[in-house]
Specification:
By secondary structure, the protein is α+β, with helices and mostly antiparallel strands. The protein is built from 12 helices and 19 strands. Strands 1, 2, 3, 6, 7, 8, 15, 16 and 17 form a 9-stranded mixed beta sheet that branches. A hairpin with a 2-residue loop joins β4 and β5. The longest helix has 23 residues.
Length: 432
Amino acid sequence: MIIKFSRVAITLVFLFCFEGYTQNKLAANKKVTKEIEKLSKKESIQLALKMIDDTDKQTIADMILLNEIPAPPFQEGKRAKKYLEMFKEIGVDSVWIDTEGNVLALRKGQKRDRTIVLDAHIDTVFPIETDVTVKVEGNTYTAPGIGDNTRAMAMLLAVLRAMNNVNLKTEADIVFVGTVGEEGLGDLRGVKHLFSPKSDIKIDAWIAIDGGSKGRIVTGGLGSKRYKAVFSGKGGHSWGAFGLANPHHALGKAIDIFTKNASKYTSIKGEKTSFNIGRIGGGTSVNSIPFESWMEVDMRSLSPKRLLEIDEIFKKSMKQAEEEYNATGVKEKVSLKLVPIGDRPSGKLIDNEPLIQRAIACNLLIGIRPFLATSSTNGNIPISKNIPAITLSRGGVSKRAHSLDESWTNDEGAKNIKTVFLVVLSEAGFVK
């Protein structure tokens, strides 16, 4: 059965002519637009796109199955093993789990001159004991991690299934990857490993799925620096040892100094830069001088230069607080230790990068209005290394990500699978 795109094609022409159709006037260049239109008209491609619709129930079943396997950062092993089995069942040339815990499934190309990655991170933010049972109400699926990022994992399987069922061939190798450690203290450890000398593959283009807004194409990596600042002292009784250096008091001074210095810096005109003290802790009881006081700090910027500058402001502020507090006449002293807990590089691709142009054209062809964005994703790593990388949307309607009542609604969810399918196929070089 051949699917005709006549209405879509007409809509495309209209949208390209009306340059103000979206708030940022986004349209692909003519060369790429023609390339994607030509690709979409091939009978095998149309059959594969129909297959994505026809297997939607299977994709949902995959999503539920995977979601009900807990996978916090550093504890993704059980889910990874199941994912590997699912790739094997659909069919790939080889599949393995690397030394960092990433799942890699290779579908060989005919030329094998390039390697294109399609990625979905397999970890969630929730502790291992969290109830991740999926509750189904109509087309809405509710469970911790269901959108971020289990839906994306199921989309990779759907793309592979569509390619295999119509026996599509590409020039380049395609590696379907389930990465570990994208969330929180995982600090992108999975993707960092894939771009390290220890990696099993050399990557030429990176396409990830993460994030809910239907037409979002992430082309910029929002960099971050994260620390745990720890003030330590001897500790003692609040009455009997009164006057002893108190790490909580030092931490309070540190927060005050850093907040003033960082606020002054971020108010300066330039690329947006942020800072946040997300967690604080320490102490044993209300009537004890604590032996330790700590805080976790997050700083972000799209500008590598400004990220380094606010990082330096933080370090100097912490040292200043340590010195000033110890000079107040307290008995003994507190000591400061800065522990790096996150380092995500920043960067941005130019908008005429072919991979970006293909993503724009594919979204439009499927009937999704695209927009470019910046975010903190696995794409930060390849972007910082000047390797073409984008992060595409998982589609549908996502709500309350990172919460216990996180949900994903299947509102034309197959559209985004089709978009991803076309982007990967066009980037890998469709043969037949």
